[in-house]
Amino acid sequence: MTEAILNGYYSLVKGDDSTDFAIVPPAPYLHGYTKIKRWWNQSYDKVTYTGCALISYRDAYIVVSCDVNVLLKIIANNNDELTFNVIFKNQGDGGIRRILVCPKTELHDLVNYDDYYYDYSDKQIKRVKHGSGGLGIFGSASLDLQFAANKSLVDTISGNNLITFSRLSGANYGATYVDSDGLIKTTPVNLVLYSQDFTNSFWRNALSSSTVSSPDGGQNAYELTNSNLLFQDNINSAPANATITTSIFAKYNGTGNAEGIQLRVAGIGQNAVWGNFNLVNGSVGNTSAASGTSGDGDTWTLIDYGIEPFANGWYKVHITYTCSSATRIQFRPSDSPATDVENSTGTGIVLVFGVQVEESTTASPYIKTTNNAGGAARYENGELLLEPARVNLLAYSEQFDQWNKGNGSSVTPNQSVAPDGTNTADRVQHIGSGSSWIGQLNILTIGTEYTATVYAKAVTPGTNAQFGFSIGGTVNSDTKTATSEWQRFTWTAAATTGSFYISNGDDSYDTDVYFWGAQVEAAPDPTSYIPTSGSTVTRAADVSTSALGVDSWFNKTEWTIYSEDDNYNGFNWILHDGDNAKRYGCAINEGIGINKIFERTSTVGGGNGDISVNASTNLNGFIKSAAAMGSSANLYTNGLEGNATDPFENYPLAATELAIGFRGSYLADTFINGHIKRLAYFPTRLPDTTLQTITYNT
User: Fold this and answer.
1) Is residue 387 included in any domain, yes or no?
2) Which terminal CB of the chain, N or C, has fewer other CB atoms within 10 Å?
3) Where are the beta strands (DSSP E) in 421-486?
């Protein structure tokens, strides 16, 4: 690296508060192009570049200097080296001057880094490696799920979604979470069944199987011709008159006459909502009228439509609309997108993948489904949120005017902005004497342990802001005090009667508090909020797995698994062979203190074994752990080495599944209740010194 380049790099990044460029992630993840804009500052006129961008990738920063605006594709061809594919407006030499890859921890003090440069002699980008290279220790991982950094299930190494996520049973496929803006939101739900399996008979005119490359990195796309146009009727419980967005991935096939795709949605009769989309130049073609009535009397309104580029020539197209009846969706090739009308007969072929129908004003990230509708994964404060199935036993979680009331209490609905941003918080007032309570009666079982939660905010902070819970008639919580900010209050106890109450907390207090989002769960700990309106609601468990045996990242002989989580009630990951006979897992064992434990179970080769951290170690907050298996086994947690308490002989594990957040398909009733920031898999048994380094919790 030349001194001028290095000095210029330091000048750019040391003044973090005054830099003229943004730190951005590669988008969309790996194997997609990240736009790098030319950057210039007169004070750096002696530096040998005129443009610079800083890209956040895994545990490294990628500093790019360029002469012109470019699109940069980052490809991980092996564990410690990157390949860069560059597109710029005017083809020719140059474009990229220099690429520096350095660990984020060394941003201002380089020791290990990769210096990529453009070799004009053979017109190739080449690398000079310094120290252990720019990707650091995690550069040797073969699977790296950075949930907190990417808010995605996509593996940052392969760029593929290797995780099967589902929330497929129960009345509520969606689930709530606290978003980065502090508001409580609900995940989108894909109402289409078999959203990418177009061979299934649920699709009328089902397609034959295909092995065409798809946007998810697999071979899951299909060829669509007009002779077997694809459609599905009566989309799973799509609400009438709701705002619906339908989307699909599509790609120009390169042969035949079809340059585009037509989406037709809403009413089953003619003159429905439809639009044509050009897959050659990425433009919107001819579309239906803004509103109207279909041939069978359905009324509809077209709200929005659009097309956006995706990786490798794919586009995601969508239509947003309302319709007075159940939804039909239909797709067919469009030979001339600019002029084709509804039901035009095309003669060409287009590639299709991943259909989504959702109650939303925009197209959300794609959610794969099979025989049930599917809800998306949740990222609370950035981390992947995983929870067991739970039931909110309260029939009305927000409408407190529907609760039973004592004669000393009153409820005024919709008096304040609630934690979800809507004006749905109710004002509850109790007098300081008499029968002052609101409650839902005969919903509990005597002797069962329950956890109650509610969001509360004082009407006038510091005045009449007290209240209390009662789980059963005689088990009362301590007095809670609301403040000027929304807070979620909780109380756990065993029921002595069948009813739940919120009272003034003490007969001497008047109470004047805004309430929203009440919940009662038959469990010793709370989970995310489950809205109800007239009946109890079940939120299904979050299930995340990755099938093994065909994935190149998995090595059954030796490996290391790193995780960062706040899980205190179960396994944050398990490798297993389809039953309980042979498995490895990492969990919290609260039975012998709050300990991280690396467990091995086997019916052969020496029985069970485990390694745990010292029982006196306090593991509060997010925990960094690394479990290694090879010629020997070990566990490090927050930089501390574990102690083997039982034999832990090694054996090759013919695992078929990596289960994340639960015990796997062989025992699917044990789930964690927590968050995972990151999970990485190394196909080697890392040295103990490395295990200590990557788990040291600063």
Assistant:
1) no
2) C
3) 425-430, 437-440, 449-458, 466-471, 480-481
Helix (H, G, I), strand (E, B) or coil at 347: coil
Cβ atoms of 333 and 284 within 8 Å: the answer is no
Residue 102 has phi, psi (to 5 degrees) of -140, 150
Cα–Cα distance measured from residue 549 to residue 162, given in angstroms and rounded to the nearest whole number: 13
From start to end of 120-235, where are the E strands? Answer: 124-130, 143-146, 164-166, 176-178, 184-186, 189-190, 222-225, 230-232
| Tokens describing residue 231 | 């459609």
Lowest mean pLDDT among 168-172, 254-258, 493-497, 558-562: 168-172
Most confident listed range (190-204, 660-674, 676-690): 676-690
Query: How far is residue 354 CA from its own chain's centroid?
Result: 17
DSSP for 366-391, written as a single string: P---SSS-EEPPEEETTEEEE---EE
* AA identity, residue 21: F
Gap between the Cα atoms of 424 and 696, Å rounded: 45
Q: Say if strands 53-57 and 23-24 run parallel, antiparallel, or are unpaired.
A: parallel
Residues contacting 285, CB < 8 A, separation 6+: 260, 275, 276, 277, 278, 334, 336, 337, 338, 339, 340
Q: Are residues 12 and 32 in the same domain?
A: yes
pLDDT digits (tens, 9 = 90+) for 112-171: 888 877 676 776 777 888 887 888 788 888 899 988 877 888 887 777 778 888 876 555
User: Could you give the CA distance from residue 62 to residue 26 in angstroms, rounded to a whole number?
Assistant: 10
* Phi, psi for residue 362 in degrees, rounded to 5: -140, 165
Contact 562, 678 (CB under 8 A): yes
Radius of gyration of the chain (CA): 29
How far is 285 from 125, CA to CA, in rounded Å?
40
Length of the chain: 698
Asked whether residue 183 is assigned to any structural domain, the reply reads: no
Q: Are residues 535 and 550 in the same domain?
A: no
**Closest C-alpha among 660, 600, 655 to residue 632:** 600
Q: Are 328 and 396 within one domain?
A: no
Quick: pLDDT tens for 497-511. 999 999 988 767 799
Domain count, the chain: 4
Beta-strand ranges (E) seen in 42-123 are 53-57, 60-66, 70-76, 82-88, 96-103, 113-119
Grouping H, G, I as helix, E, B as strand and the rest as coil, residue 320 is strand
Of 272, 227, 277, nearest to 250 by C-alpha is 277
Give the separation between CA 331 and CA 353, rounded to whole angstroms: 11
